[in-house]
């Protein structure tokens, strides 16, 4: 079954093989990637594979890309970690101080508020996006006339630059001429005009809505890919047995797409946790810090406050949180599917 | 199952079934319409806004259609704001970064997918893991490096950073496609006396072209939309990209919604065209070949 094969591209997942094999829950195939390429069934039978030639060539071909990736991710993260233990400025140079930045961070209400807000934002938006994404995918999975156009339409929000999305939602939810205010008052859902982005009670939710609009397509596509791995026969036999559509979805479709769904949700949570563009452009973190996320807080500390050391500590906290979230998901996935297997 | 009033049990089963099918079809149509409307309405509103006069934009009742329309905002975008500069910058940075990235990704993926490289599973996992790093935790060290190299506020500095950033995504998209080609291809090429690079160039790359196109488009969109690094690394309109330009849109006296909308349309239209034309490829690319083609 070829769901979300980023993580586990073993040969059984190739679309061709998958077609002939009913995916079974006993083989959830969530084993991490490493065994894939060295799987004996798949070993590339190049004649030279025992000689050093192709191996060396492989390393040579791999090196530039690996160097580029390491240079823009691993090295900077490690240096950020180091900077967070320093008292540093852009022009003043830096000297090692140890943990003062850490104790300042742990005692900083601004940080903790931003941390909780970002966590809530990430999980809240992901929850809605997952639900909406499943709905969209179920619709787009049917065959109907103009499906290609519908799929293209759904992709549009995903392709639009986030900064542009920010401007769009800033205009739609403007407190004076925003079309959202007009529609809501016309439908008598609100009494007067709401300053959506200027009110601490509504600003974060409005940004969340913009994020949901922008990223639901991504979710829908991943769910769609997972849906295509559900064998048609399963649904049909459930129908013959008299199962309602909802019952079929819950008992047949959902279990098959669940692993893909969890991985897609993980990708979304990690991405939403970094949210920067939307609050930076729409509110700048305000009003009254109500939309300050870890990324905007860190960015301002770094580039406006010019506090390299403390800003790096905030960035490190963001990084560690992401690692913990990913580890949590991985732990849950492996436990759940090992239990199924055994 | 549908709410059929009690006094019509006499209705023949066929009619009831047909009615049910009709209801279901209408519900489905409604669902499709809702999905499409939700996705395109904000962009269409932006499009309409960009052609409306400022006084219509600030009126209490919104005008849905730009009648009478105006091109004033588009003129302002290209003359007052000199927006073509940002566009040129974005094109230069994005195209170079995507092209170089694609080349590196193709070489690396060939090695990972089809050559006996030791520890390739670890390499793949590391590359994927690195792509999850939050940008806030890499921005300062990159800034310091570019600063010491004298590459701040240059095309080279920004597109160099983008090369590494889009690589993981490209590698994962390409990996699925490279892996799906039968291994007999390499063997046949080897028997014909082709070296590894020759095999890559003449056999694998042409066959993996759909995957390369998908990786290229995804990389392009990622780089085109990137904001935080561009904001940090560029400081003059001579090198700033489109997202930085749009984020900096300001007018002294009022919020220039019409101008912003026009600028948004200008930078988004190419992406919308890509999406509409290559919907199938992009879907396959995002889902990394998991979709049957």
TrEMBL record, chain B:
Pfam families, alphabetically? BPD_transp_1
User: Where is the protein localized?
Assistant: Cell membrane
On the tree of life, the source organism's domain of life is Bacteria
Q: How does it sit in the membrane?
A: Multi-pass membrane protein
Q: Where are the transmembrane segments?
A: 26-45, 86-110, 122-146, 158-178, 199-221, 260-278
Q: Name one GO biological process term.
A: transmembrane transport
* PANTHER family on file: INNER MEMBRANE ABC TRANSPORTER PERMEASE PROTEIN YCJP, MALTOSE TRANSPORT SYSTEM PERMEASE-RELATED
The protein depicted here goes by the name Sugar ABC transporter, permease
| Organism field | Streptomyces himastatinicus ATCC 53653
């Amino acid at each position: 079954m070829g769901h979300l094969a980023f993580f586990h591209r073993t040969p059984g997942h190739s679309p061709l093989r998958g077609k002939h094999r009913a995916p079974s829950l006993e083989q959830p195939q969530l084993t991490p990637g490493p065994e894939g390429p060295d799987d004996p069934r798949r070993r590339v039978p190049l004649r030279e594979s025992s000689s050093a030639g192709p191996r060396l060539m492989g390393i040579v071909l791999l090196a530039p890309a690996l160097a580029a990736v390491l240079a823009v991710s691993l090295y900077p993260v490690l240096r950020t970690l180091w900077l967070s233990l320093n008292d540093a400025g852009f022009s003043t140079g830096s000297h090692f101080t140890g943990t003062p930045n850490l104790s300042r961070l742990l005692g900083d209400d601004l940080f903790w508020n931003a941390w909780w807000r970002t966590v809530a934002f990430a999980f809240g938006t992901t929850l809605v996006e997952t639900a909406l994404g499943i709905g969209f995918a179920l619709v787009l999975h049917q065959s109907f006339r103009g499906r290609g156009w519908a799929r293209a339409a759904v992709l549009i929000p995903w392709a639009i630059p986030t900064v542009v999305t920010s401007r769009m939602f800033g205009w739609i939810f403007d407190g004076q001429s925003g079309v959202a205010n007009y529609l809501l008052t016309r439908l008598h859902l609100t009494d007067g005009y709401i300053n959506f982005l200027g009110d601490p009670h509504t600003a974060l939710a409005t940004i969340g809505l913009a994020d949901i609009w922008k990223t639901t397509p991504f979710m829908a596509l991943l769910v769609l890919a997972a849906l295509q791995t559900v064998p048609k026969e399963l649904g049909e036999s459930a129908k013959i047995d008299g199962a309602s559509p909802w019952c079929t979805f819950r008992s047949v479709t959902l279990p098959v797409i669940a692993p893909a769904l969890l991985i897609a949700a993980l990708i979304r949570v990690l991405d939403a946790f970094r949210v920067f563009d939307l609050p930076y452009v729409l509110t700048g973190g305000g009003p009254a810090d109500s939309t300050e996320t870890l990324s905007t807080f860190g960015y301002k500390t770094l580039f406006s406050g010019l506090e390299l050391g403390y800003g790096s500590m905030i960035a490190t906290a963001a990084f560690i949180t992401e690692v913990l979230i990913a580890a949590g998901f991985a732990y849950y996935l492996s436990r759940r599917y090992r239990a199924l297997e055994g | 199952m549908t709410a059929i009033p009690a006094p019509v049990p006499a209705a023949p089963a066929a009619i009831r079934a047909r009615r049910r099918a009709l209801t279901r079809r209408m519900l489905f149509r409604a669902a499709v319409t809702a999905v499409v409307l939700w996705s395109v309405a904000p962009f269409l509103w932006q499009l309409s806004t960009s052609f409306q006069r400022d006084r219509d934009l600030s009126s209490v009742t919104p005008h849905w259609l730009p009648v009478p329309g105006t091109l004033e905002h588009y003129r302002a975008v290209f003359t007052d704001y000199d927006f073509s500069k940002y566009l040129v910058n974005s094109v230069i940075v994005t195209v170079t970064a995507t092209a170089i990235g694609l080349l590196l990704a193709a070489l690396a993926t060939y090695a990972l997918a089809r050559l006996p490289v030791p520890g390739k599973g670890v390499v793949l996992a590391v590359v994927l893991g690195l792509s999850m790093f939050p940008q806030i935790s890499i921005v300062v060290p990159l800034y310091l490096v570019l600063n010491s190299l004298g590459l701040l506020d240059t095309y080279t500095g920004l597109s160099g950073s983008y090369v590494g950033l889009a690589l993981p995504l490209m590698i994962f998209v390409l990996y699925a496609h490279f892996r799906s080609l039968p291994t007999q291809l390499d063997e046949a090429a080897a028997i014909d006396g082709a070296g590894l690079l020759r095999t890559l160039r003449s056999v694998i790359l042409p066959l993996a072209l759909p995957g390369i196109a998908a990786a290229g488009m995804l990389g392009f969109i990622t780089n085109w939309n990137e904001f935080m690094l561009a904001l940090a690394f560029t400081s003059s309109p001579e090198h700033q990209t489109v997202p930085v330009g749009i984020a900096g849109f300001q007018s002294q006296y009022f919020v220039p919604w019409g101008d912003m909308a026009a600028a948004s349309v200008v930078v988004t239209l190419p992406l919308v065209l890509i999406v509409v034309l290559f919907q199938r490829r992009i879907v396959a690319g995002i889902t990394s070949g998991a979709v049957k083609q």
